[in-house]
Amino acid sequence: MLVFILWAYSPFVKAQEKTDGSNVENKNSASSAWSTAKDLLDNLQIQGFASQAFIATSDNDVFGNTDEGGGFGFTELGLNALLRPLPRLQLSGQMLSRRAGKDNNGTPRLDFAFFDYRLYSHETNQFGIRFGRLKNPFGFYNDTRDVPFTRPSILLPQSIYFDRTRNVGLSADSIQFYGETSDAQWGDLTIQFGITRPIVDDRDTEISLLGSALTGGLSPDVSLIGRGLYETPNKRFRFAVSGVWFNADYKPGANDPIPVSPGSIQFSPIYISAQYNTERWSLTSEYALRKFRYSNFDFAGLDSQDFYGESFYFQGEYRFNHKWEALIRYDVLYTNRSDRDGSEFAAASITGTPAHSRFAKDLTVGLRWNITPRIMARLEYHRINGTAWLAPLDNPDPLDTSKNWNLFAAQLSFRF
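Above: the chain sequence. Below: its structure as tokens.
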């Protein structure tokens, strides 16, 4: 049905490269009065996308059963709308259907929906507030990671943008303040700060944070997020610093095999991002230092978890012309920077969990073909050492995973 809607609207909606609608103005509203019905329709933008991927792995499963000849288990469908009823008020929302492994079965969900009101607006400066379900502002790609055309590859670098805990990382119910300033000589600076309640009600997130043995549930607690982004006037250089203070509480389940008390989890990563752009080249690198702290569980196996994770990647993109692009990336993830090879964890594990479940090193090469402005095709190959970012629901037994493995992916995407 959603594909039919995308097709039906496409002849009537102009294809657009920008999705934020920041330059859309209500020319019929000279005052703060609400627009007429005709004005609202004139200011309404509807956009969408559809994407289908094929993924095959030599071992381990990614988005379904992929290690036995591959599968078409990765599908993305999105429909979004933007409306500006007042010159300073913008309403945005998106519904997303995503099929990607056992915890994403394609059921449509609210990806984001928020009000954006500019409290102050000037030619080169603005300040505003957003509230609703908002994208979490961290790194370069998280704000737009659900749209295939805005990603540098089929799979984002998993050391920074985890797909196994995608729901908690992508968006949250938030109040967010933002400020933007632009100078022809010095460039552009954007600051965002939000008070959030993270989305933690999916099983992949619960297993990733607590393991599969505990049967209780996580509930969100008040959390904070912020990002500062600077760009030179020609966008040749881009720099960003992001920070998150994530809080969640655990309520024990009646069938928990080990006696634990209601505990809490704190996750506070810091991200540093840098990018260099020329006409043909883009060089990007991001680094994350992730603090984990488990407390009040009254169980030594959890309360002892107080450590730093570390991750980074280096990425190069080369544009042969407006249709063809190539990518190469080296992506590294350490669950615990003090135990990078996982040997200490494996030695202490009573279940024999392998050391390679605590790290992942991924060498990626890819090719993008912009067939038309609306249709894109991609090919991608990954050579991976380690399994730290594998989804636990798709790979329930760590002992059955392989340390060294390959991943091949192909994707076809459409937008309007």
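Residues 2-9 form the longest helix (8 residues).
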